[in-house]
Specification:
The complex is a heterodimer of chains A (360) and B (333). With 360 residues, chain A is mainly alpha-helical. Chain A folds into two domains: 235 residues, Up-down Bundle (Cytochrome Bc1 Complex, Chain C); 83 residues, Helix Hairpins. Chain A is built from 13 helices and two strands, in the order ααβαααααααβαααα. Chain B is mainly beta and 333 residues long. Helices cover 9% and strands 34% of the residues of chain B. The chains are: A mainly alpha (360), B mainly beta (333). At the A-B interface, helix 4 and helix 5 of A face helix 1 and helix 2 of B.
């Protein structure tokens, strides 16, 4: 047995598992060489972060108790009593923050370079859907530690959801499981966070990859698509991804070791003096809600955010010109830049209102 | 490729700054005091150690309730920690130094208790989570249970799973031995010693005080042992006291303390205290091991935040105090 070469043993195992054809397909798979350039690493980094979120989430679930009376203490225990518990929670915390940031960069790059154009419309559409989907993880995950910040942020979000005309009130009630945010709400948020949403995310990522696989990566601007050099997916891309995974894990681990993830006081539903501060990624939405008041509130809470999301999804079908160079797409990029500036301005206004002015 | 690397570097730096911000983004209710314990390489050598000048002082306001509702004070609070110990330096205005604690005074015929009690300060930390203590502070332990009449309120937690660690410095009873009486808080019932039907429990070990009176409570039973040198002037320590055999030796105006501090030991003696009354102010420095290894003490992990509260008692022998709003102890790194 020991005399059988390793390669032969691997082949026998693949054959035993009926995976030899899949292995052949993987070995034969080639991707453009520019897939390894640093400007393209956002996609690979996003996958690394998703995997890290899944792994750290599984670890935390081993210690978590989704009941209001014990949830906080179970997180406290995992954070401070379990060896490397703070590192794992930190990796989870910093990963989702970085995930949102990298998704923004990934989207921005695709927008500037016109990667959404035919034949890659569906790559863009599925990517935007993933971008819009990820905040659901944060909304459901925020409540789980049952601390003041999570509890009161959830209350604010539920009130915003309730204000959405039509289904808003029903959606909020469905999430809450009643009129109060208690044990039913926590259980529902937990199930959504660890079961339903991850399942849907995996499905969305699979669909995104399906379109990338069949429509290919967009060419670098000015490159000749015919003479584009290609490299094997395995081992070149796979090894590069594994290297990135290890490096990001180490970096996030070190960051988590030095900066313990935030964990506030236990939730007190009767403490109305607590004013939650919005997360950085939601500052502009929060500001939108506070800009439009009274009868116009629906503009800030629903119409503008939904309109922006709709615009993003439909972009490949709005901009049908064959040109990809930014200089020839100013009609798209100028309004996009104006929207980005508006978002940044609102975020800065929100930051000033909630962090600078309050602390002064 | 060089441009790619520059872009990557910018991205990495922005990410790092961003992490530092998100890592600190815990916010608190507006009315919660934050006390930051600053890390020291060397332990403060006492109240007057110049190192205290480098540690920021937080003015913590305390206010009375009920009959003391108009009474307010400020406790200047400093906190520091080393790898092994935590320190608090607390300073508050008190024009009258109260250490009498109902001492006996002889009028030539009879013994009478003197007017006056003692000054005290108490810190209560969460050992295990006390429901709503983080947001309500002492109110949830002093006014408990909230659904019974005020006269039935006890100093207690609502369930046996909720525990607090109580450091109680008493100017007449613990200061002579330079410690703060270390106790713990749980659900009311099963009182021990002189403790009433509350949730307060003594830590394991010796300490506290005994009452100095005869069986009929008409006069003192102990006096300073003339063969022993009085180690703390003005105080009668139990270990330096002997029973009075001959009351004829006393003359009018003689004073004998009513409460005799007992030499402390064990877990009850975990919190060391150095105190001074000068210029109308009390200054008390408390110190304790971060982790005493005792089950009746809160174990401080510098990575964590701790809810705690403070109560000030001025010339008081009862529960009426001036207390803080909720406070959070954070260890700076």
């Amino acid at each position: 047995m020991n005399n059988i070469p390793m390669k032969t043993r691997s082949l026998k195992l693949l054959e035993f598992l009926s995976l030899e054809k899949s292995a052949d397909r993987l070995l034969a798979l080639e991707v453009p060489k520019d897939a390894l350039s640093w400007t393209r690493f956002c996609g690979a980094l996003l996958l690394v972060l998703v995997v890290l979120l899944f792994l750290s989430g599984i670890f935390m679930a081993f210690y978590y108790s989704p009941i209001p009376g014990t949830a906080y203490d179970s997180v406290d225990f995992a954070l401070f009593n379990v060896p490397f518990g703070s590192v794992v929670k930190g990796v989870h915390h910093y990963s989702w923050n970085l995930l949102l940031m990298v998704m923004g960069v990934h989207l921005g790059r695709s927008l500037i370079l016109g990667s959404y154009k035919a034949p890659r419309q569906m790559v863009w559409v599925t990517g935007v859907i993933i971008l819009l989907f990820v905040p659901l993880f944060i909304i459901t995950g925020d409540l789980l530690p049952w601390d003041q910040k999570g509890y009161w942020s959830t209350q604010v979000r539920l009130s915003i959801i309730s204000s959405v005309p039509g289904m808003g009130h029903i959606a909020a009630r469905l999430l809450q499981g009643g009129s109060l945010t208690g044990v039913v709400a926590l259980t529902r948020f937990y199930v959504l966070h660890i079961l339903m949403l991850p399942g849907l995310l995996v499905l969305l990522i699979a669909v995104h990859f399906h379109f990338i696989r069949h429509r290919g990566l967009s060419e670098p601007l000015g490159a000749d698509p015919v003479s584009r050099p290609r490299i094997p997916f395995y081992p070149n891309v796979v090894n590069r991804w594994l290297f990135l995974f290890i490096m990001v894990s180490i970096i996030l681990g070190v960051i988590s070791w030095h900066w313990i993830p935030p964990f506030g006081d236990p939730a007190d539903p009767t403490d109305s003096s607590y004013i939650p501060k919005p997360e950085w990624w939601v500052l502009f939405l929060n500001q939108l809600v506070s800009v439009f008041k009274g009868g116009l509130a629906v503009l800030g809470s629903t119409i503008i955010p939904a309109g922006l999301a709709g615009l993003l999804i439909c972009l490949p079908f709005i901009d049908r010109s064959p040109h990809r160079h930014p200089a020839r797409r100013w009609k798209i990029l100028l309004p996009a830049a104006a929207i980005v500036i508006a978002i940044l301005t609102l975020s800065i206004m929100g930051y000033m209102e909630h962090f600078v002015l309050v602390e002064n | 490729m060089r441009k790619d690397k520059q872009l990557f570097t910018v991205f990495a730096v922005v990410s790092l700054l961003f992490f530092m911000w998100t890592g600190k983004s815990v916010c608190l209710a507006a009315d919660i005091f934050i006390i930051r314990a600053e890390h020291l390489q060397q332990a403060p050598k006492g109240l007057k150690d110049p190192i205290w000048n480098q540690i920021s002082s937080i003015p913590v306001s305390v206010q009375g309730r009920d009959v003391l509702s108009e009474s307010k004070s400020i406790v200047s609070t400093q906190s520091a920690y080393t790898d092994e110990f935590i320190y608090f330096k607390l300073k508050w205005k008190d024009p009258t130094r109260s250490v009498v604690k109902q001492s006996w005074k002889f009028d030539g015929v009879n013994w009478h208790h003197q007017e006056g009690n003692e000054d005290r300060i108490a810190l209560l930390f969460e050992t295990t989570r006390i429901n709503k203590f983080a947001t309500r502070g002492c109110a949830v332990t002093c006014h408990s249970p909230p659904d019974v009449p005020k006269k039935d309120w006890k100093f207690t937690t609502r369930t046996s799973a909720e525990k607090g660690d109580l450091w109680h410095w008493k100017s007449a009873r613990s200061a002579p031995y330079q410690y703060a009486d270390d106790a713990w808080l749980t659900i009311a019932g099963n009182p021990t010693g002189s403790y009433r039907e509350t949730g307060r429990r003594k830590d394991a070990g010796k300490g506290g005080d005994i009452k100095n009176h005869t069986q009929d409570e008409s006069k003192p039973i102990y006096m300073q042992d003339p063969t022993k040198k009085q180690t703390v002037p003005g105080f009668l320590l139990k270990e330096e006291a002997i029973k009075i055999n001959d009351y004829s030796i006393f003359k009018a105006g003689d004073i004998i303390p009513f409460r005799l501090p007992v030499k402390p030991g064990g877990s009850r003696f975990d919190v060391k205290a150095e105190s001074q009354w000068a210029d109308g102010h009390w200054t008390v420095m408390l110190s304790r091991k971060l982790d005493t290894g005792h089950g009746d003490d809160v174990s401080f992990n510098p990575l964590k935040r701790y809810s705690f509260a403070m109560a000030l008692f001025d010339d008081s022998g009862d529960d009426h105090s001036k207390a803080t709003r909720p406070m959070i102890l954070i260890f700076d790194h």
